[in-house]
Amino acid sequence: MCAHNVHRLFQKSMDGRNADAPDVLPDGYKVEKGDGVYYLAYAMGRMSSIWGEDAEEFRPERWINNGIFQPESPFKFVAFHAGPRMCLGKDFAYRQMKIVAMAILHFFKFKLANGTQNVTYKVMFTLHLDKGLPLDAFPRS
Question: Do residues 55 and 76 lie in contact, with contact meaning Cβ atoms separated by under 8 Å?
């Protein structure tokens, strides 16, 4: 892949805003009006300074308290952005995700097709599993 395409891929995987007034970021860095502030959501989702020492572990219970979904701060979990420009479809996306997951888990049991496969990511505009995740689905009786 040529350097130009790598740069374009990197641009697509980051997001940011321009400061509309002077401000100070949480780490003390000062930004002036018009400065660009960019972030990588993929990297933020794996930072131990944000999520703790086990940041790279898959732990859905981070968002569940006594069986009830507990969302994180939108400034910490930036998939839908935060503040006045937060995604209008966020609540719909969460609801749709819960309904689909509930229906699938109600009707099927799942098992990894290859229990020894390491699951790795392929970083693209959206996050993909490198070699997919082959599963065997069994109807529940």
Answer: no
